[in-house]
Amino acid sequence: MRKQQTLIKSTYFSGIGLHSGKPTSIALHPAPPNTGVIFVKQMGDEMVSCPATIQYLEQTDHCTTLQSTNFKIQTVEHILSALAGFEIDNAYVEVQGDEIPAADGSAAPFVEIIEECGITPQEAPRNYIKIVQPIHVEGEQRSITVLPSALPRISYFIDFPHPLIQQQDYQHSCTPQEFSKNIAAARTFAFRQEVEFLWARGLGLGGSLYNTVVFSESGLVNEEKLRFHDECVRHKIMDLIGDLSLLGSPVIGHFEANRAGHLLHTQLVQAILDNPDKWILLNAGTTNKSSILNGTAATTANTHCLHELQPAFHSV
Ligand code: ZN
User: Fold this and answer.
1) Which of 150, 167, 261, 282 could serve as a FRET partner for 23 with CA atoms 20 to 30 Å apart?
2) Catalytic residue among 29, 78, 254, 262
3) Domains by residue range for the chain, with CATH
């Protein structure tokens, strides 16, 4: 039986928000068993929280945004992907600002800070959602299906009419080693017309060639070459891993994504919750299906531990 994991110590990371363009910082902290991942923020004398579960999803337009009472946090997908990719079940992500730092547009800098914190097993079993019947969502020429499988796997296919992208297909076995080696460094990508359109609307203000791969009509605007010839599909897998973590428990199943994105990823998360007859809980300990369905598997018991957290940032 696998045990839940958390971080050994706290660490900090600063940067700018991709959308706001404003300075922003996060601190990662260890959390007790059965906490899940919770975004927290010091507001006045109070520590407010927003669990990283689908029940708090606000929107997926350009980035994944979570919102609880009085607390909204944008661009959570890459830090969530790094935590899920490294099988961290329990962590507090303290934020200063309204957005997670863009870093270099990939999850690699977050992997570095997780490694700096160190990872430790905890005295609670790691529960899994094991898919026993296929679950499928689709949009126009887009779809994702999750099928029963002995091990967690992702197959992702994209097709863009650009000479440097075209059709890309990638198979990922979900292990921390594979995540670290093949997925984490894949950066956010965009097309020049799209970037110009976003900037005109006052969005993507923190976007730059440092944190985004920008494709021109036939080539690359960035001087830095692609990190992988199929960097785009690998980034899509990274986004999917982050979005799937909003289930609150890891999934054992084979995901087959076809031209998907944040909207479809999160629709699949909701579809899994809407079809509890198509999965079982393994090693559930004290967790039960209804607490996963309500998004309370992780959080009810442990928000009271928040007062023990030594905040890294003080609100102004
Ligand atoms: Zn992304």
Assistant:
1) 261
2) 262
3) 3-125+298-308 (3.30.230.20), 128-282 (3.30.1700.10)
Distances (CA, A) of 32 to 6, 72, 227, 309: 8, 23, 37, 11
Phi, psi of 308 (to 5 degrees): -85, -10
Span 213-231, pLDDT tens digits: 999 988 999 998 999 999 9
Residue 305: count other Cβ atoms within 10 Å of its Cβ. Answer: 13
Please name the residue that has the structure tokens 């609100």. Answer: 315
Please report where in the chains the tokens 């428990």 appear, as a residue: 249
Distance (Å, rounded) from C-alpha 179 to C-alpha 182?
A: 6
Backbone torsions φ then ψ of 301, nearest 5 degrees: -75, -25
Tell me the CA–centroid distance for residue 166 and ligand 1, in Å: 19
* Alpha-carbon gap, residue 228 to 106, rounded angstroms: 13
Distance 207 CA to ligand 1 centre (A): 12
| 214 within 8 A of 220, measured Cβ to Cβ | yes
Rounded distance from Cα 94 to ligand 1 centre (Å): 20
- The reply to whether 304 belongs to the active site is no
Q: Residue 152 corresponds to which tokens in the numbers above?
A: 């967690």
Residue 159 CB coordination number (10 Å)? 13
Strands 251-252 and 128-131: parallel
Q: Please tell me what DSSP assigns to residue 82.
A: H
Q: What is the pLDDT of residues 115-155, one digit of tens each?
A: 999 999 999 999 999 999 999 999 999 999 999 999 999 99
Question: Which pTM does this prediction carry?
Answer: 0.93
